[in-house]
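Researcher: Sequence recovery benchmark, item below. Answer with residues only.
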């Protein structure tokens, strides 16, 4: 069994020789003759450097925490949720429809994992915890795809819809609520609200322990932009990607590699558990994505009698799946999961009987065959040599993404991916499942997804925005809750300012901390500033969220005071609002909808007080708060540790499993997005997790990772890139063999 080092190591897979080595930067380099042997080699690299990450994800995804790791109430809830989602079990369907060559590719990856498991055994963490590890399978990799598609992505949409349902159940003023998400709640009726109030069981927002469990990769936002040769100083395409994920964790989510397959060369990041490079560049094509915010989750209102669901005047049988969760310390937990033609019924897993009445069904478009398209794309991407073939491959991906592509011929392109339902409503509020006309009418074909090639302006950019610029009047509605436009507006503004860009200029954009959101609000706030220290600091603020800024600290305090002023009076109780603001991702993701109510001074919300009255009150609270104490810098307020994903900060700092604390720069609305919030007693973040810039006229990429190559605490590669990442320094990786 090889041990990866700076000297090339050789191994044979099915009569094909493979070479693996570690570059000077620490990342691994694979040389193989075909796709399957490259997948085998990638698996060996993942096991060498990310064994713990790989198998922890599988334990969680299969719903086996109580059996193998930690048996308590929190773990039981996670296991129940994972079994309900059926991330692993449903992959049987994908397996049955995948082409043989794709199955062989994924089997080669599984063979690599199992070769390592047989020859090297378990990592010390699993030995210490006495965890038995079964061999890796194709289904395990397909499960990773489904988890990537849901956790932190489709789940975010589900959270928002649960927020809407919960708000309606608690009696918020409907017309105000409609204005908040206009026009997507226009079809909401009083009858629907009455049905929601009669639900026999309601889970509220997706349980915190699911959303913020430290083991799971959460992919919530990102930026990407690309310039055509007409905007490039080198006369070639330059691409920039910086996916925004949780960064207060070790190891980093991504695993960076260079892979040589025959005459083809690919460099970028992979995901432990999967073969292939999912973001990066090849000899001729660059490819990177942001989360697309496609609405892939809906809820339906079910009327249940005798475990049957009402359909068009008749009660129909549901399928019932019985699950058993094995537990280390307690009796095994048995429960039932009900599924019908709309989705999974949300029922109380702790109740032995399903009581007659109203329930919700959760529909997720990737529940069935949600890994198939992505698996095929991972296989096909390797041979794509231009944006046209790459667009076709990426359109099959089940995960909601906004892909930006460039090629050596000078083409740039945008491609949407995801499993978009065909529906007769906005999808943002539940409809009665009893009426078949309310059901999804299949999924959009890949050719109906949004796509752009070679725009006249010479550049493309996305930042989880609404994509209006890429759509036309006949384009189907796939996004109803995008993030705010501030980041993409800033990117577009900077790209429009100059005729030509160098690679260094575009790298500098990835460190931009200027807030357009701050600009909009400060324009009106400045009229209220006086001579006190808070006012002086705000007046001098440069609208940037750098670690030394005190203006950013004061503006954020004012901003949240303002939201509380507007949205708690006659709408949300103060305590409930503080939970939404500080302990959920609702404001982190969907703040722009709240901003628009304020910026436009929507009359439904300002009947008794003017917008400027609310500004005055919010400012007064900030002035009072800091009248007798020092104003901390933004960096002092935003300090967080990068915790080992298994031990999650529970070990003494002296042991070195955690790093920091580090200061999180940026905000929700800056190119350097810096979101930091608490949920279920745990701090979560999403920030640029990796920065990647490449000029296709060269064979090089400039990259840096929020972490290091290895998940081995005592490896020098455990946190090898953290300081460079914090200070916007890049390493240079070449497609050539090192």
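Model:
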């Amino acid at each position: 069994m090889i041990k990866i080092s700076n000297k090339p190591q050789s191994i044979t897979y099915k009569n094909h020789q493979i070479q693996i080595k570690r570059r000077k930067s620490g990342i691994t380099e694979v040389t193989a003759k075909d796709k399957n042997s490259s997948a085998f080699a990638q698996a060996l690299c993942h096991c060498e450097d990310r064994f713990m990450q790989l198998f922890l994800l599988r334990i969680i995804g299969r719903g086996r925490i109580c059996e193998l790791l930690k048996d308590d109430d929190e773990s039981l809830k996670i296991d129940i949720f994972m079994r309900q989602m059926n991330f692993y079990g449903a992959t049987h369907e994908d397996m049955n429809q995948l082409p043989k060559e794709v199955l062989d590719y994924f089997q080669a990856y599984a063979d690599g994992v199992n070769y390592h498991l047989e020859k090297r055994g378990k990592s010390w963490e699993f030995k210490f915890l006495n965890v038995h590890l079964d061999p890796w399978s194709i289904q395990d990799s397909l499960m990773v795809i489904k988890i990537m598609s849901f956790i932190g992505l489709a789940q975010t949409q589900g959270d928002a819809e649960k927020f809407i349902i919960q708000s309606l159940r608690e009696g918020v003023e409907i017309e105000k609520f409609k204005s908040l998400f206009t026009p997507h709640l226009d079809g909401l009726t009083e009858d629907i609200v009455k049905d929601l109030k009669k639900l026999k069981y309601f889970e509220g927002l997706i349980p915190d322990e699911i959303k913020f469990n430290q083991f799971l990769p959460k992919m919530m936002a990102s930026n990407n932009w690309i310039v055509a040769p007409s905007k490039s100083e080198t006369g070639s395409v330059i691409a920039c990607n910086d996916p925004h994920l949780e960064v207060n964790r070790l190891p980093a989510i991504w695993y960076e590699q260079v892979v040589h397959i025959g005459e083809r060369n690919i460099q970028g990041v992979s995901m432990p558990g999967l073969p292939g490079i999912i973001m990066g560049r090849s000899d001729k094509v660059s490819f990177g994505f942001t989360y697309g915010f496609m609405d892939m989750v809906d809820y339906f209102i079910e009327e249940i009698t005798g475990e049957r669901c009402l359909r068009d005047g008749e009660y129909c049988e549901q399928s019932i799946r019985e699950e058993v969760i094995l537990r280390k310390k307690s009796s095994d937990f048995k429960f039932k999961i009900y599924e019908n033609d709309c989705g999974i019924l949300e029922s109380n897993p702790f109740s032995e009987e399903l009581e007659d009445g109203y329930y919700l069904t959760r529909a997720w478009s990737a529940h069935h065959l949600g890994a198939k398209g992505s698996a095929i794309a991972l296989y096909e991407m390797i041979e794509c040599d231009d944006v046209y073939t790459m667009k076709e491959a990426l359109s099959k991906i089940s995960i909601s993404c906004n892909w930006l592509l460039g090629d050596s011929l000078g083409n740039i392109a945008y491609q949407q991916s995801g499993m978009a339902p065909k529906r007769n409503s906005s999808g943002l509020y539940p409809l009665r499942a009893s009426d078949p006309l309310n059901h999804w009418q299949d999924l959009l074909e890949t050719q109906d997804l949004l796509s752009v090639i070679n725009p006249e302006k010479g550049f493309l950019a996305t930042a989880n925005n609404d994509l209006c610029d890429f759509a036309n009047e006949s384009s189907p509605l796939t996004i109803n809750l995008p993030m705010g436009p501030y980041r993409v507006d800033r990117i577009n503004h900077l790209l429009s300012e100059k005729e030509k860009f160098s690679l260094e200029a575009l790298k500098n954009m990835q460190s931009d901390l200027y807030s357009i959101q701050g600009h909009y609000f400060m324009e009106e706030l400045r009229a209220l500033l006086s001579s006190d220290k808070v006012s002086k600091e705000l007046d001098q603020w440069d609208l940037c969220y750098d670690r030394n800024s005190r203006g950013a600290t004061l503006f954020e305090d004012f901003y949240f005071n303002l939201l509380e002023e507007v949205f708690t009076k006659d709408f949300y109780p103060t305590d409930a609002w503080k939970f939404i603001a500080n302990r959920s991702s609702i404001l982190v993701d969907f703040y722009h909808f709240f901003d628009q109510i304020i910026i436009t001074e929507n009359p439904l919300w300002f009947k008794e007080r003017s917008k400027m009255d609310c500004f005055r009150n919010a400012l007064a609270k900030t002035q009072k708060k800091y009248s007798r104490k020092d104003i901390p810098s933004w960096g002092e307020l935003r300090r967080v540790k990068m915790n080992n994903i298994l031990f999650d900060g529970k070990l003494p700092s002296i042991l070195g499993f955690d790093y920091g604390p580090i200061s999180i720069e940026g905000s929700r609305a800056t190119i350097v997005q810096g979101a930091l919030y608490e949920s279920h007693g745990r701090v979560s973040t999403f920030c640029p997790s990796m920065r990647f810039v490449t000029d296709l006229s060269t064979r090089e990429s400039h990259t840096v990772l929020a972490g290091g190559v290895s998940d081995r605490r005592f490896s020098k590669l455990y946190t090898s890139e953290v300081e460079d990442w914090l200070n916007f320094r890049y390493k240079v990786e070449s497609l050539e063999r090192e």
